[in-house]
């Protein structure tokens, strides 16, 4: 046991004097680590993608003065490793997966496994050193994250609106002619309350007007005009589904998603 410990210690002393590369293949739950010294593999192991696993990796990294670290940017999975390395001010190479595949395709990816991928990355950095990743400030990363979230929310909003348009063609297509611009909180609130022409025709006109007056910016006269138009459209409508159809429930769920997104 003592002899084994001395061998490990000697190995790390040697690693500190030579070029030491840590190739890391990151997946959803674990990461495979391959350590190469001057192009020769000296160790490999798997770690969990949590503080326990990352601290195990850190223990090995601290044994080397200037470790070279390389891993692929695998989206949300590699972000945790990246944040941990940034926290400890460790520089690294973060490869685009397609670029890494292109640079290692000749003789490395014949038998692809997570364990071998870590070896391939370490070998790539040992033989053809890649440029270190630029470490962005925390403020810049937060700004970019906000931008991505906004873009995704905008994309989801457009997608939901397109879905709603298709759904309305089955339930009450004529309602799209109720307003000049069939968008916004008031419009979707009306469609949510009256998703089917039968529901309009079963509701007293006075109750429809009262509902409309409860919406933002709609007074008594405007509520009366919209109610008259809504009833007229309901009378000529020919929906493809009944008022108790699953399509109605799906439409209401989609509208609630739209209203929640627009409030945010």
UniProtKB/TrEMBL annotation:
| GO biological process terms, semicolon-separated | DNA transposition
Q: Which InterPro entries match?
A: Transp_IS110-like_N, Transpos_IS110
Q: Organism's domain of life? A: Bacteria
Molecular function terms from GO: DNA binding; transposase activity
Instruction: Using the record's annotation, list all stretches that form the Transposase IS110-like N-terminal domain.
Output: 23-173
Alphabetical list of PANTHER family matching this protein: THIRD ORF IN TRANSPOSON ISC1491 (PTHR33055:SF17), TRANSPOSASE FOR INSERTION SEQUENCE ELEMENT IS1111A (PTHR33055)
Q: Report the protein name in the record.
A: Transposase
